[in-house]
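Reopening this one. Same input as before:
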Amino acid sequence: MKLTVLIPGSSFPRLRSAVTLLRSEGLHILVDSGLAEDGGRLLAALDQEGVEPGEVDVVIATHLHYDHCGNHLLFPRASYLVGAGDLAAVRSFMAFFHADGSPGKTATADLLRGSYEDIKPFYIRSIVREVTRNLAFYDLVLAGDPRFVPLDTLCWLTSEVEIVSTAGHTQGHRSVVAHGVELEDGGFADVLIAGDAVPGGEIVKRASAAEIPLVADSALYWRTRRSLLDRYRYIIPGHGTSISNGSRLATGARS
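Same output, byte for byte:
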């Protein structure tokens, strides 16, 4: 199992998700595809790894927020795996978005406020803006493009790559466990690619789920986050540098 962080996640002032490449049992697997404006950077990182866009077999979306799925369409051969709850929610949202004739999509903004227990105003503005910028992708979600594969249960892609439910940030949120990743000291460990179940940065240190800028279910989010931090020694957060409590990961992370 080889794991490479192609693009590290970052928080404010520019929110971008980590993009991670897994090579397992002959498959090239991406976990999240990142911010759309980072498409060129992502392709360059893959090229350095000797991977062509057409060689990517699977893109796993931890969830379908714009900063995590902006470059799926660069990989036309891939299957796009996503939690079934998130896929259904985005399809419903996009139908509403297209039907909303209110000035500045104010009705869509109101829908977003009602869909999350806590969502900061800047997130509402960003989601509405970035949906417009990523309309080709989100319209494929709405149309039911067969490349999108909904995940209802736990899933193993290979004997080394496990997709687990980590709901809270969104109801259908998924994270990925890469089993048997090589450490720089020569050992091996399981690595959690968390998405926004553990967003990273200063958010990891906050004492209350209510302080998270966007969360569908605060109590569930907090239980999930605590469980993951207790269970996994090595974590690649959605929006921060890798977390480890000991040996360093041999992730090949790029800046």
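So the earlier flakiness isn't reproducible anymore. For the record, The mean pLDDT is 90.
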